[in-house]
Amino acid sequence: MSILINVKPVPSVAVVILNWNGKELLSRFLPGVVKTRYEHLQVIVGDNGSTDDSVAFVEANFPSVSVIKNDSNYGFAEGYNRVLSRVEADYYILLNSDVEVPENWIAPVIAMLEADPQVAAAQPKVKWQLDKSKFEYAGAAGGFLDINAFPFCRGRIFDTLETDLGQYNDAREVFWASGAAFFVRKKHWDEVGGLDPDLFAHMEEIDLCWRLKNKGYKVMYCPDAEVYHVGAGTLAANSPYKVFLNFRNNLIIMQKNLPFFQAVMAIVVRMTLDFIALLQFLARGETKFATAVNKAHYQFVKRIGKTAKKRTGQQVSFLNHTGVYHSSVVWAFFIKGVRKFSALKF
Predict the structure, then answer these.
(1) Of the residues 6, 139, 154, 311, which has the fewest C-beta atoms closer than 10 A?
(2) Is the pTM for the entire model greater than 0.90?
(3) Is the pLDDT of residue 232 over 90?
């Protein structure tokens, strides 16, 4: 008598690193990715029209790594869309080129996703590669939004990074997962159409997670895996262009994903707060940043009609979503002096 045992197959995973003139980062961090322990894994470098010799470097030194070439630099969002349209796997992992990984960083997150079909996206713990005792700015222990849609993280509020003492070692639902190491089911990626190319870079993962949550899916943080992010590998933290993208894109994703009247009110509040930030930049003599904020508002208003066409009719009051702080993180940080996520009263 034979006994049949149904063994669920191990899902396939594609780690995809989007590269643009990043030979130095690839030489530092791609070897660790190639050594990752996972049964059904493909590692892909998607090149965004690099003009250095990074593609030749990968092809010569990493024969197991596939290279998919875009014909130009399409930015983070459309660059990934074009590369992933040519990749078949059950799960995609969008991994920044400036991320160091240990050997077993994939399996725990995939196990979390496999355990619940309503979980569409997830992230591991993201720590600072230069000081691995601390959380890292881009993701930390999971992403949140405040009542005015300001993004922040468990372990990072504005520019204050917490030391990892195990205080956020609980797996939990969050609002957004970090684009530094972003795990997503292919079928859910396809369902919502991937990243929004008009965002170019910055907050595109928040927008994607927001669209997934508006459809009823979950976004999770997995503390049982961690990665180490250098940060600012493409745009420096003090880049006026980065300021422009963050201010503009935050307004765009609010217009896209909030119910109409909630979006109108939220945008009015945000543009008022942004104007206060502009005045502060001017007071400090940082005219490039003030100009970037002004340009962000101009570009947002200019494309309001185009953005309106992206509204799906599935917008949900984001106060009903898990991962939203029902107060102002700006007020908590700058007025009340809150520096730790655990001190916020949810």
Answers:
(1) 6
(2) yes
(3) no
